Amino acid sequence: KFFDPQGRVIGAVVVPYIHPGPFRNVGSASFPSYLLYEARSRGLNILVLHGVSSHERDLALTKEAEFIAQDVLKWIESGPGTQVSAWGFSEGGLNGIRVACITLGIPLIFLSYVSGGDDFPYPVVEKVWSVQPRCAVIDAHNCLRDVTRASLDPEPLLRTCKASKMRRVKIGIASIKSNLSGLEVGLGGVAALVFDLGGSTHYVVCFDSNNMVEGLREHIARGIRSLGLRSGVVATTDTHAMTGVRPKVDYYPLGSLSDWKEVVEEAVKAVREASSKKRDVSRAIYARLEYKCRVLDKEKLEKMSEITLKSTMGVLKALIAGFLLSLIPLLL
User: 51-89, pLDDT tens digit by residue?
Assistant: First the structure.
């Protein structure tokens, strides 16, 4: 989280390695939506990103997901952390994957499939942490397409990151409600972070959605360029709050129902709001919170995936006894 010269919290970036799933209000499906909504109701400015993970990291119990979300909000309001001071923005490519490294105290490494894809698996971040434990690896989750997952070596990935100490850094974070289809965007709405580093300005804009249709990512980026911002990241939270809402439809990625012009307008609105809230950063702190949680068994999840398109009750039956214990980290 970031503080201004008066010691007030500007806002925070939260990277959960809880996967939002399996669907609707079951388990951690609505975790990012709930966290963003609760933060906004408290007047906290946060950006929630999709830490690299897949469905084997779905929490089994909604009450555990909500407890963690409330604990995270308490930390943002008054929790301690390690002071960090590196800043930077750099981009590159690796094995068909677009890599953007935004260093805001610690490196935030965003991964995007160039030609589309779905979840990056959790072992990717485990490999990176074995080399550099103080960083976050984020799945931008911004172009849906069925592809074979690419392999990633941690050292070339980390070499993408360029950072230094800077005399002056300004950051603004904002979260707004969305007027787009409730089947595409959850209660978290649209969040944005805008930051000035050494004379250049960059952004991150993240919709509370489960991925987006191919081509929309670039369309949103072109719209944001109208504000004079030429480099940044477009992402989604991968919320599953709307998954399985309609029979025989798994979910609606952003842009499948909504007019693309309206999507761009909301992205631009969130970025403008974040820009208006920019303040000088006097210090930034980092914390890693870990929780022992029940997660859903992988075999049960595969069975649930088959049943989802048939009936919700069938999925609920498949959940029975599908619990495992796992240590879940969150980076803040």
Answer: 999 988 999 999 999 999 999 999 999 999 999 999 999
Rounded CA Rg of the chain: 18
Tell me how far apart the 2 most distant CA atoms of the chain are, in Å: 58
Question: What is the predicted pLDDT for the residue at 146?
Answer: 72
Looking at residue 68, its pLDDT comes to 96
Of the candidates 84, 85, 94, the one whose C-alpha atom is nearest the C-alpha of residue 155 is: 94
User: Does residue 110 carry a pLDDT above 90?
Assistant: yes
Written as six digits, the tokens of 174 are: 């904002």
Contacts 24+ apart (CB under 8 A), 218-223: 219/260, 219/263, 219/264, 220/263, 220/264, 220/267, 222/264, 223/264, 223/265, 223/267, 223/268
Token pair belonging to 14: 């939260």
Q: Residue 23: how many CA atoms within 13 Å on its side-chain side?
A: 24
Tell me the C-alpha to C-alpha distance, in Å, between residue 133 and each of 17, 130, 173. Answer: 14, 6, 25
- DSSP assignment of 300-330: HHHHHHHHHTT-HHHHHHHHTT-EEEEEEEE
22, containing H or E segment: none
- Cβ(10)–Cβ(3) under 8 Å? yes
